[in-house]
């Protein structure tokens, strides 16, 4: 086990406590967190205001850490859930012009944590059930009906999985889960050359930052709006991932969904595609760092290629 990174709680529940973002240390209050939270508050307010001036609705979604939801399963780990980064940001945004842009997931997920396993025991990511809570909350906020047939309509045979936390243990820690076949009406109509090249090399599982895909849903009952999601692995872009795929759920509900894997927002892209809604989604631990002030998707894709040893595309 990587020292100090994984904590083993009750009944095989594993929790990320260390790592690059020093997760457990984020559940503390100090003058440093006060200043950092204030800067995040200003980021959300500025994004919501800029989107409003463009005629776009903005939603800011923080996916809670497993620690924030299942503190009761940590086996006595000293933890102040009220001081979690997501909880602090929610309080900072109260009464601000961006209060309506923040979508709280902590309360609804804690309310249902005993009825369903909302996270994998051996992984940092949410399960389909956990992801579905976020999907329902987004639909309610946007005034559209969530698709109940997506909740558990196409369960596949149970399969073993060794999550990103289970992989850090010796021996490896596995669990059994029930995959969900989400795809019904939505189809991918665009993938950037980064995605296409990694698919061609059979390396798509390595790809994260820099991903850019677009889904189209021409079903008569689809909500006619266009969404752009700037997100991470909790939203994802591949139908076959084992964790909850928020992007897929949204793609099966709305006419068009664009997904870009980045913590930043590409304002030039928004001016180009003119979405109705912009969603910024990322895991709670990433609140440890402020997002980039500027972001260009092409530049990020080039950087990813350099880091992954993938040749740059040939100019036409």
UniProtKB/TrEMBL annotation:
Keyword Transferase attributed: yes
Keyword rRNA processing appears in the UniProt entry: no
Biochemical pathway: Glycan biosynthesis; alginate biosynthesis
GO molecular function: transferase activity
GO cellular component: periplasmic space
Subcellular location: Periplasm
Pfam families to which the protein is assigned, alphabetical: ALGX
Domain of life: Bacteria
Keywords: Alginate biosynthesis, Periplasm, Signal, Transferase
One annotated GO biological process: alginic acid biosynthetic process
InterPro entries reported for this sequence: ALGX/ALGJ_SGNH-like
Residues in AlgX/AlgJ SGNH hydrolase-like domain copies: 6-187
Name of protein: AlgX/AlgJ SGNH hydrolase-like domain-containing protein
Organism: Methylobacterium nodulans (strain LMG 21967 / CNCM I-2342 / ORS 2060)
């Amino acid at each position: 086990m990587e020292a100090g990174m994984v904590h083993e709680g009750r009944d095989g529940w594993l929790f990320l406590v260390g790592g690059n973002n020093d997760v457990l240390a984020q559940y503390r209050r100090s003058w440093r967190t006060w200043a950092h939270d204030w800067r995040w508050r200003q980021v959300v307010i500025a994004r919501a205001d800029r989107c409003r001036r463009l005629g776009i609705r903005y939603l800011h979604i923080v996916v809670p850490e497993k620690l924030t939801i299942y503190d009761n399963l940590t086996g006595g780990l000293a933890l102040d859930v009220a001081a979690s980064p997501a909880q602090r940001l929610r309080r900072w945004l109260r009464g601000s012009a961006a209060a309506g842009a923040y979508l709280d997931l902590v309360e609804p997920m804690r309310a249902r944590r005993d009825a369903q396993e909302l996270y994998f025991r051996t992984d940092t990511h949410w399960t389909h059930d956990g992801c579905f809570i976020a999907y329902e909350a987004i639909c309610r906020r946007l005034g559209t009906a969530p698709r109940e047939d997506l909740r558990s309509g196409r369960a596949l045979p149970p399969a073993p999985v060794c999550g990103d936390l289970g992989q850090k243990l010796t021996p490896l820690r596995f669990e059994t889960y029930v995959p969900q076949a989400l795809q019904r009406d939505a189809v991918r109509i665009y993938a950037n050359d980064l995605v296409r090249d990694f698919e061609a090399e059979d390396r798509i599982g390595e790809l994260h930052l820099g991903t850019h895909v677009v889904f189209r849903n021409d079903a008569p009952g689809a909500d006619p709006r266009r969404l752009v999601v700037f997100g991470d692995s909790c939203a994802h872009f591949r139908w076959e991932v084992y964790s909850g795929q928020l992007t897929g759920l949204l793609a099966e509900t709305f006419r068009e969904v664009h997904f870009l894997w980045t913590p930043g927002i590409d304002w030039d892209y928004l001016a180009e595609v003119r979405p109705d809604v912009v969603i910024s989604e990322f895991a709670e631990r990433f609140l440890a760092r402020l997002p980039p002030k500027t972001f260009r998707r092409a530049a990020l894709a080039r950087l990813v290629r350099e880091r992954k040893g993938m040749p740059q595309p040939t100019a036409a």
